[in-house]
Amino acid sequence: MAEGEPDQIPDDGLTTRQRRNRPLLAVNTGEGKGKSTAAFGLALRGWHQGWSIAVFQFVKNGKWRIGEEAALRALGGVHEQTGAGGPVDWQIMGAGWSWSRKQGSEDDHAAQAAEGWAEVKRRFAAQRHGLYVLDEFTYPITWGWLDIDDVCSTLADRPGFQHVVITGRGAHPRLVEQADLVTEMTKVKHPFDAGQKGQRGIEW
User: Fold this and answer.
1) pLDDT value of residue 167
2) Which residues pair with 90 in a beta bridge?
3) Closest CA to 88 of 122, 133, 23, 36
4) How far is Cα 100 from Cα 150, in angstroms, rounded to an integer?
5) Are 73 and 90 in contact (CB under 8 A)?
6) What is the structure's pLDDT at 174?
7) What are 97-125's pLDDT values in tens digits?
8) What are the Acidic residues biased-composition ranges (predicted)?
């Protein structure tokens, strides 16, 4: 593929503009590093286009603030102050979803994952965002916390123009089949293999 031109043009009856401007489902999976980082890079592009950005972290601990979160939250502030870019909403399951914090209760991770997915579904129906990053979303599916039939049908039937990128290892085969864009990160070498712990600025 050279200069953004596809190798072949499908016989789908759509114009070039129609084919270019359609909502995409992307999946970043595999054993290698960079799945979430690539998704957050896509969120930066979406912010620049003025899209409303929603990040749902389904596994990350709420006490572990990553650099991409700080950057995108700051850009959300820029939008509020200047109108540049788009709004940013960042939700972390490990911190308790912002719309339903239950102080003093024990964490039930499966229930929290289901609650987060229910909120994503509500936002799909409301066509609230231009881009959703469902970070580490493959794991609640793998662990049986979310029903793959429901996930696939909801993603297929989401209305309007809403891009979705899903990250995590071991993406379900049905997600891979349904997605428009799938990237598998392959680990060749990693400092962890030599016993080196994560580094500031590299892992977070």
Assistant:
1) 98
2) 55
3) 133
4) 22
5) yes
6) 98
7) 766 655 444 457 899 999 999 999 999 99
8) 1-10
Cβ atoms of residues 163 and 46 within 8 Å: yes
Which token pair is 8?
């072949």
Q: Does residue 39 lie within any of the structural domains?
A: yes
For the record, the structure tokens of 41 come out as 């890079």
Read off φ and ψ for residue 156, nearest 5 degrees.
-70, -30
Distance between CA atoms of 8 and 1, rounded to whole angstroms? 9
Range of the domain at 122: 29-60+79-96+107-185
C-beta of residue 176 within 8 angstroms of C-beta of residue 27: yes
Q: What is the pTM of this model?
A: 0.85
Q: Structure tokens of 191?
A: 């400092």
| 83 within some domain | yes
Separation CA 39–CA 33 (nearest Å): 12
CA distances from 58 to 97, 154, 175, 189 (A): 10, 17, 17, 27
Asked if residue 195 is part of any domain, the answer here is no
Contact 135, 58 (CB under 8 A): yes
CATH number at 130 reads 3.40.50.300
Residue 50 covered by a domain: yes
Quick one: CA dihedral 18, 86, 38, 125, positive or negative?
negative
Please state the domain count of the chain: 1
Choose among 76, 80, 83: nearest CA to 55.
76
Instruction: Give residue 120's Cα distance to chain centre.
Output: 11
